[in-house]
Amino acid sequence: MARITSDKAASGVTGNLLASDTTGAAATMAAPFGHALVQVADRNPRVLGLTADLGKYTDLHVFAERFPERFLQIGMAEQNLIGVAAGLARTGFTPFATTYCVFATRRAYDFIAIGAALGKANVKIIAGLPGLTTGYGGTHQGIEDLALMRSVPNLVVIDPCDATEIAQVVPAIAAYEGPVYMRLLRGQVPVVLDPAGYRFEIGKARLLHEGADVALLSTGLMTGRALEARNLLAREKIQAAVLHVSTLKPFDREGVLNLLGRVKAVVTAENHVITGGLASAVADAVADAGLSIRLKRVGIPDCFCESGSIPYLVKRYHLDADSIAAAARSVLQ
To answer: Does domain 206-332 have CATH number 3.40.50.920?
Structure first.
């Protein structure tokens, strides 16, 4: 298969611009998505890689270097990216299409809904710069993408925690027949979950720690911060459970309700606006089940965020471990 255009950004190393936040990480892994996709493509010749001029900035350059004949550079045309991917899926390919969250969900929403989801096309949309993982302000910060994608029927929605989970998500969604939206952490990605013990499964939340006092429910990179918050609370003799909910759709209601049936003080933590994402999914499940809980939401408020360094923005919008721990103390009062 010939490339549509050349892609100068598809070779070399991951671009330094807009890199993942590795603050406090004990270990990192380079380009876990790109390397996992190469491993999948080694086994499945129908896997293709497509991008909208962002190969180097979504770790797809790793795939492009290994499989240049299976790499398509669509250019800065996100609607075309999804349309082409949906067409390729109709002919039996498994296309992985990469761009940024804001470009996929804002510019190409109709193409995702109709081209991919309506007919259950086997398209995998890989979206970089989720939430506050870039300091470039409202034009580049994908703060509402989970809400938009959760509302689309037939679409699986995943927000991985770290390099360990990304490496497991890629083969899982390649094997899944249907459209998937996955948030991407790129470049040097922290390793939070133990590769030897953690196992990802579509639609399943994972209880990382038990705790009788408060339940911390988190998704994406916020799970690393929830684990830090648990350690902070343990110093105060507060026992916190940590439930990692990487699949936002289909939502693991059973797993969530099983925990919240035992622990009534609850904090949700997400790298996303607090409306339409994890907190809303938890509240919906609790309301449907008729449970009574006390809930605090940690996430981005109803605003477009400032530009600035990642550490500044994390503190500014209270997405750090200290803020999760403070929410836990508050819900326990």
So the answer is: yes
